[in-house]
Design a protein that fits this description.
This protein has 86 residues and is α+β, with helices and mostly antiparallel strands. It has one domain: Winged helix-like DNA-binding domain superfamily/Winged helix DNA-binding domain (Arc Repressor Mutant, subunit A, Orthogonal Bundle), CATH 1.10.10.10. Helices cover 53% and strands 13% of the residues. It is built from 5 helices and 3 strands, in the order H-H-E-H-H-E-E-H. The chain has a 3-stranded antiparallel sheet with strand order 1-3-2. Strand 2 and strand 3 form a beta hairpin. Helix 3 crosses helix 4.
């Protein structure tokens, strides 16, 4: 038996969450590349370290990203997202 999981991180879904364009593009980037660092975020979107940190922290608070090491972020899996909810 093969279990297919629906990709919930579509552009439409991310827009409904109220993400800004940078954050949406960052989620799509991580879906393709596997992870993103604060420095990569700064370079991709020509923003300051503070803006990158704020945007990435918001994605963590929303349960979309998880911080896996200093300055590196990955998508939370569906299973991880469900575990963090009461």
């Amino acid at each position: 038996m093969v279990l297919l999981r629906k990709d919930i991180y579509t552009e439409d879904y991310l827009r409904k969450l109220g993400l800004n364009e940078r954050q949406i593009k960052a989620v799509l980037y991580v879906k393709e590349k596997g992870s993103i660092t604060n420095k990569e975020y700064q370079n991709l979107f020509s923003v300051s370290r503070q803006t990158a940190t704020r945007d990435l922290s918001d994605l963590v608070k929303l349960g979309i990203f998880k911080r896996v090491e200093k300055g590196r972020y990955k998508l939370k899996t569906h299973h991880e997202s469900n575990m963090s909810q009461p």
